[in-house]
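[job 4471] stage=fold_predict status=RUNNING
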Amino acid sequence: MNSIMHYQKEFLLTGDERKLRPMVLKDIADQIAAKVQREIVDTGGIGSTLAGNALSAAAMRVTLKKVLNEKNFKKMIALGTRWSDGVDASIKEFGLPWHCNRLGARGEYIFKGKQPVTGKEAAESGDFELEQYIHLRLLNDGYLITPFHNMALMCPDTTEADVDGHTAAFRAMCAELVS
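[job 4471] inference complete, writing structure tokens
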């Protein structure tokens, strides 16, 4: 997130769309990979996320004004459904005991065969070593998945090609896991 916020700093501080720089997830993933010297695992969850600073507040303001609107939501939700359908198809194809949770423009894979209902079930649906492998494997293919919960959130600039590329990378990774 810091890499993305730094890359879009001028836009986020001003809200001036002319300062919005085009982004390709693979480029951001490459920038992050170049900065990573050792693995740091944050076990604090969202409690460690920076919030309330000037840059975060500016980002929230611009997001509420320019991103979270009906036109964008329709596209984002359709892409979220496409992403989740691709994940579910791979899970089914390879007979994995996993599940893809869905919520609007968001999809998340978990390592239980059904959606958790309780906090205990959600906690039991994780697999630390598998998550680390998946994150690294997909990052090597140019796809950065949200840490801690294997989630992707579509944005207005996400394309069907982005989603289909993730689906292909996820499918290949699943095939490798069962071979």
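[job 4471] summary: The beta strands are 99-103, 106-110, 151-153.
[job 4471] exit 0
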